[in-house]
Amino acid sequence: MILPFLNVSDEFPNTEKALVDPDGLLCCGGDLSTQRLIQAYSLGIFPWYSKGEPIMWWCPSDRMVLAPDQLHISRSLKSAIKKNQPEFHFNRNFTTVIEHCAQISRKDKGTWIHPEMIAAYTALFKAGHAFCLEVEINGQLAGGIYGVKVSQIFCGESMFSIQTNGSKYAMYGLCKHMISHDIKLLDCQIHNPHLESMGANLISRQKFIQTLSI
Fold it and tell me: Which of 44, 104, 121, 150 is 20 to 30 A off residue 33, Cα-Cα?
């Protein structure tokens, strides 16, 4: 099967045409303009590629999602929240959050949050379509998360932790925000055992895309 290559003016292929192996790879090429990213997320598609590669667009056959009221908070995390009283700041400093996410140490020593992605998502944030959350403990940054809002879904892109439980606090704070603003679902994109332990589960591509249209 030949992977479709998008010119800047091309529309995305039907998501049901995504590859089985690697799961969800739909097409490559195009650009990271704000208009393109809004279109992608509204169709259940997201970019994920390494620096030096063409832009790769994905829509996995199964999607890991979390309903905010289903977040599992362990006994130890409840105790830590009570003890440390984390403070949450929504949409305060997008640049700080995405740059911390880009600096996360990874097994392959690489990152998909390279300067091109940082610039694209910062523009998306300025246009009102991306979000971020910072966690502070005693005035010191502890962790955070950023992503994209589309319909009644928050699409989580990456999170970071620079203090113990920093990213878990971020998930807790984000889910509280989602509940208070009637945001129905957190899109975690692909299966992750850590997120599964916090209450996330897999749904089909079709069900996820149907949820986007609600």
Answer: 104
